[in-house]
Write a structure and sequence with these properties.
By secondary structure, this protein is an alpha/beta fold. The chain has 2 domains: 3-13 and 20-359, 3-Layer(aba) Sandwich (Alkaline Phosphatase, subunit A); 376-436, no CATH class. The protein has helices at residues 3-10, 48-55, 69-78, 82-85, 99-105, 124-127, 172-186, 232-255, 294-297, 324-332, 348-351, 413-429; strands at residues 23-29, 58-64, 109-115, 132-136, 156-159, 162-165, 192-197, 262-268, 277-280, 283-286, 298-304, 313-315, 319-320, 362-367, 376-381, 385-388, 393-395. The strands form 3 sheets. Strands 1, 2, 3, 4, 5, 6, 7, 8, 11, 12 and 13 form an 11-stranded mixed sheet that branches. The protein has a 4-stranded antiparallel sheet with strand order 14-15-16-17. A hairpin with a 2-residue loop joins β9 and β10 (283-286). α7 runs parallel beside α8 (232-255). It is globular and about 65 Å long.
Length: 437
């Protein structure tokens, strides 16, 4: 099926059409680098469900998020570089038009479940286009009004405009997943868009219900999350629990007869937590969240849609998170207008086995606290070369950990041309005046 014919089919909305518009489920885990999945050569954890999605779909080998959560969340939902729309950690500009708004305006049923961390109040998810939600960290992180509270055993959540506390051994990720499954159940006869930014496997690393030492009474009366990152053994348990939850979603689609009309995408908001060591292709790989190297930005990206997205495909295009918004719109046959001012480009042709004329470069602006003196970076890169605004140039083939920038007097002609190209990209997309504040 060509991309052109797909868009004609997906645009059918009348009651007499035999082919419905596709459902879309976008799953984004929290702090899970590419190295944690068997599909990417990971050997430390069992992830058969997601691995099968990769095997029977498309695996993107060069997808890059910002290395910390909120900038990625704003970027993926808005389709714009953070240099244009980022207000600060845990905040999203209420004027932003999100892909939730896009799908809602197009007549889709919309749901978001998992981690919010975008500020506002209990009405905010709805204002950004999600008619139903089950979230952690909306107006609070947990029970009572304590600003820092538990998300895992006996959690405090916000569900469809209500603060919901759980005290009977419930597990936060299970509750969220149950709401995802219920939403699918109740919307089988209309197209739906599910955005599922999971709360796993972000620290604190602690037992899941499948861990031998799971305790349903853990922290039942606590309002604060356990400090520190916890035992890395539980990080592995949490990765495997993600796979289990994804499996439940896939089974629900199959059970409901919706699988063949549903695109499922799996990705992550940034790399693995700093210091967490995993084995990938026989070598140790250390997580680098909050670091602009590949250990902080390189994330999994898998797309699966039986009978539509070809199986067994590995794609090496550089993928930016601004691409999601226009891609999802393309798939659903929703028009993108100039007024939306998107920075991203649709990769829908790639999903259908066709070529897409994507840039051979990737641009990133991320500052966790919207402060040039705080954690953050601005850079542009190709597969091989990476140039930072401060003048550092790295050859990623020779120096993937970015230990030693190439000195200016050591540049050959090719490298000088590449430096010029990447610096011009930065100048085109940077935030004016940001570094002079």
């Amino acid at each position: 099926m060509s991309i052109g014919s797909l868009l004609v089919i997906s645009a059918c909305t009348g009651p007499d059409e035999k082919i419905p518009r596709p459902n879309i489920i976008l799953i984004m885990s929290d702090d899970q680098g590419f190295e944690t999945l068997g599909a990417y050569g990971g050997q430390s954890y069992r992830t058969p469900v997601v691995d099968k999605l990769a095997e029977s779909g498309i695996r993107f080998d060069s997808a890059h998020a910002t290395p910390v959560c909120t900038p990625t969340r704003v970027q993926i939902m808005s389709g714009k570089y953070n240099s244009r729309n980022y207000k600060g950690f845990g905040v999203m500009d209420p004027e932003i038009y999100t892909f939730g708004n896009l799908f809602q305006d197009a007549g889709y049923a919309t749901f978001i479940g998992g981690k919010w961390q975008l500020g506002g109040d209990l009405d905010s998810p709805g204002e950004f286009g999600f008619e139903e939600y089950a979230l952690w960290q909306v107006t609070r992180r947990g029970r009572g009004e304590n600003p820092i509270a538990n998300r895992y055993p006996n959690p405090g959540l916000a569900i469809n405009g209500e603060k919901s506390d759980f005290f009977d051994g419930e597990y936060g990720p299970d509750i969220i997943n149950e709401h995802v499954l219920d939403f699918i159940d109740r919307h089988q006869d209309e197209p739906f868009f599910v955005y599922y930014p999971m709360i796993l496997p972000h620290w604190p690393f602690e037992p899941t219900p499948d861990s031998p030492d799971w305790d349903p009474e853990a922290r039942r009366e606590d309002s604060e999350e356990r400090p520190g990152k916890g035992n890395e053994t539980y990080f592995g348990d949490m990765i495997e629990y993600i796979d289990k939850l994804v499996g439940q979603v896939i089974y629900k689609l199959e059970e409901s007869g919706l699988r063949d009309n549903t695109l499922v995408i799996f990705t992550s908001d940034n790399g693995t937590e700093q210091g967490v060591t995993s084995l990938v292709n026989g070598e140790e790989f250390v997580g680098g969240k909050l670091n602009s190297t590949d250990a902080g930005t390189h994330v999994p990206l898998i797309a699966n849609w039986p009978g539509v997205v070809p199986g067994g495909i590995v794609n090496d295009d550089l993928i930016c998170f601004t691409y999601f918004f226009p891609t999802l719109a393309d798939i659903a046959g929703i028009e993108i207008t100039e007024e939306m001012e998107l920075d991203g480009q649709s990769i829908a042709p790639v999903l259908f086995g066709e070529k897409a004329n994507l840039p051979d470069w990737l641009y990133m602006w991320w500052y966790r606290n919207n402060d040039p003196d705080g954690p953050g970076d601005e850079f542009a890169r190709t597969h091989r070369y990476k140039y930072y605004r401060d003048g550092r140039l790295f050859d990623l083939y020779e120096d993937p950990l970015e230990k030693k920038p190439i000195l200016s007097d050591e540049l050959d002609d090719k490298q000088r041309k590449m430096q010029k190209k990447l610096s011009e990209i930065i100048l085109e997309y940077t935030r004016p005046g940001f570094y002079n504040n």
